[in-house]
Design a protein that fits this description.
The complex is a heterodimer of chains A (152) and B (404). Chain A has 152 residues and is α/β, with parallel strands linked by helices. In chain A, 34% of the residues lie in helices and 15% in strands. In chain A, 43% of the residues are buried. By secondary structure, chain B is mainly β. The longest helix of chain B is centred in the N-terminal third of the chain and has 11 residues. The chains are: A alpha/beta (152), B mainly beta (404).
Chain lengths: 152, 404
């Protein structure tokens, strides 16, 4: 396989996770999730900016998240994100080169609105360490550093 | 209009170059400020002396390059500023001059999961059909050439973006979602040679000046995931201001273009089916003589199927038809009235194409068009002698594109 198309199989369930301090309430509506990952909703109800973390388009966990939780195909999200970026009407999750580069660039500031992470481990670390963050993980990756959000 | 005589047409490549060597990266220079771009090179080979994007009949033409760079800044969750510069080289009609594609401020007055209400102001992308919003980005197009019946390049400036105010509203619920965009008042980009050639068949001595116009689009996403419908309609107007006096045969005049488009699309996991139908009324008065008047209705439609074999491979087939005048579908009345070839008035195009995604940021494509009748979407700049054109012709095209 060429780079960028991981093809691992996951049998685990995917759940939505947020930063433990995120003002996300007890559960999250599917419509809200769809608006957040569609980059149309950029702030929690109290005004805190939402930080969105996603895995690459063809990552098996991203595919599962799109299909099982949001009920869309990953390429439909890609189409929607491309439309935002190339028509000047929004921003899409950003790919960054490396952990070090990201740390260097966000030093002293609050962090990006949306980022493409490389692995579930990185996803968990980002969501745990970023105020207002939301992402998704397979259940086996869950620990006390992130809060699982039931989907209404 | 952003223009610069001192820069070469490939100036954005200087900015893009660092990205070509490394991984696909958009740049975030500081928080909420992103830079993205794309670079596309095409090869066109055509038959029967019909030139497309340069001299494409003899050995083909590499005269098709699209380079774009955009920057967006989100200083607050409800506010975005965005700008995109573009350089497009496509035969004699587009010579790569840097142009300002959009430059806008977007303010979301209301933003919740179910409702959104906002305004965009500046130079904004025209809400027009399914493919106009990002029509210069090869990655977002269904094919190398967009269906030319509706997205014809000959009036590209007019279609692509305008200067004005756009109001948008979104309403989402269990019944699906509505997205309404209303662009108006807007000043269309008519002060250019391509618009004059499309309206008048010639670059006249005077200039076109925009008049206050409007355009609206309503998209309905049904509860059945992937099924959406859209309707676009409006009225785009300009004035022709003559340079010479009526005694010298140069008369004032007006053009009005009233498009009405119905769009439907169903996207499944591995395939999609898309169709659009347009009725287009054109009213022209004056220009050639004080009592000259044209009031015609044109018709366009296409149906297109795409099959995604896997994340790399995609195949496309499309049938695409354009008629300049529904009362003169074979162009015979046009030929009798003007002495010009009837096939300038229509185009019927079967297209098959294949796309290969090398990585998420590199893509190559190949495409074959059998234009089994009609030369409507050819450019006068590439084909100065319309009598040398042939009614039936073919296009073979290759394209490579990079984005970040």
């Amino acid at each position: 396989m060429l780079c960028g198309w991981p093809a691992r199989a996951y049998s685990d369930e995917v759940v939505v996770v947020v930063n433990p301090a995120a003002p996300a309430g007890e559960a999250i509506a599917r419509n809200t999730l769809s608006a957040i990952f569609g980059m149309r909703l950029r702030a929690w109800e109290d005004g805190t900016p939402i930080r969105v973390y996603v895995l690459p388009d063809n990552h098996a966990v991203h595919v599962m998240f799109c299909k099982q939780i949001l009920g869309v195909f990953p390429h439909q999200y890609r189409t929607a994100w491309d439309r935002l970026v190339y028509s000047g009407t929004g921003q899409a999750p950003l790919e960054v080169a490396s952990e070090e580069e990201m740390r260097a660039r966000v030093a002293g500031i609050r962090g990006e609105a949306a980022v493409v992470v490389k692995s579930e481990e990185e996803m968990r670390a980002k969501v745990a360490g970023t105020a207002g963050a939301i992402g998704y993980l397979t259940r086996k990756m869950i620990n006390e550093s992130v809060t699982v959000m039931p989907v209404k | 209009m952003l223009t610069s005589q001192s820069l070469p047409w490939w100036w954005p490549a200087l900015i893009l170059w660092p990205g070509l060597c490394g991984p696909a990266l958009a740049l975030e220079l500081f928080e909420g400020f992103q830079v993205h771009g794309f670079l596309t090179q095409g090869y066109f080979l055509t038959s029967n002396h019909n030139n497309l994007f340069g001299e494409s009949t003899d050995g083909g033409s590499l005269g098709f390059t699209e380079i774009g760079v955009n920057a967006s800044w989100l200083p607050r969750p409800d506010l975005q500023l965005a700008i995109q510069g573009l350089s497009r080289r496509a035969g004699g009609a587009f010579e790569g001059e840097p142009e300002l594609d959009f430059a806008l401020l977007d303010y979301a007055v209301v933003a919740s999961a179910d409702h959104r209400l906002g305004v965009r102001a500046g130079r904004v992308r025209t809400p027009f059909g399914l493919y106009n919003d990002t029509s210069d980005v090869a990655f977002t197009r269904p094919s190398i050439l967009l269906p030319q019946s509706i997205y014809f390049d000959r009036t590209r400036e007019l279609r692509i973006s305008g200067d004005g105010i756009l109001l948008y509203g979104e309403e989402r619920g269990s019944w699906g979602s509505f997205v309404l965009e209303f662009l108006g008042p807007v000043f269309p980009r008519v002060d250019n040679e391509n618009t004059e050639l499309a309206f008048f068949g010639a670059d006249l001595p005077g200039d076109l000046d925009p008049r206050v116009s409007f355009l609206g689009r309503l998209i309905y996403e049904t509860p059945l995931q992937g099924l959406r419908f859209a309707v676009t309609g409006g009225r785009v107007m300009d004035d022709y201001n003559p340079r010479f006096s009526p005694e010298e045969g140069d008369f004032p005049g007006t053009d009005a273009l009233e498009p009405l488009i119905f769009s439907a699309q169903y996207e499944a996991e591995h395939w999609s089916l898309t169709g659009e139908y347009e009725r287009r009324r054109i009213v022209q008065e004056g220009v050639f003589s004080p009592d000259f008047k044209v009031d015609i209705v044109g018709e366009s439609y296409y149906i297109q199927g795409i099959y995604r074999i896997d994340p790399h491979w995609e195949m496309m087939v499309r049938y695409d038809v354009f008629f300049g005048d529904v009362d003169d579908r074979d162009g015979s009345e046009f030929e009798a009235a003007t002495g010009l070839p009837s096939h300038l008035q229509f185009a019927k195009d079967w297209t098959v194409g294949v796309r290969y995604n090398i990585t998420p940021s590199w893509m190559v494509r190949a495409e074959y068009h059998n234009v089994y009748g009609g030369t409507f979407f050819l450019f006068p700049q590439d084909n100065p002698d319309v009598f040398a054109l042939n009614k039936k012709w073919d296009i073979f095209a290759l394209l490579v594109s990079y984005r970040f």
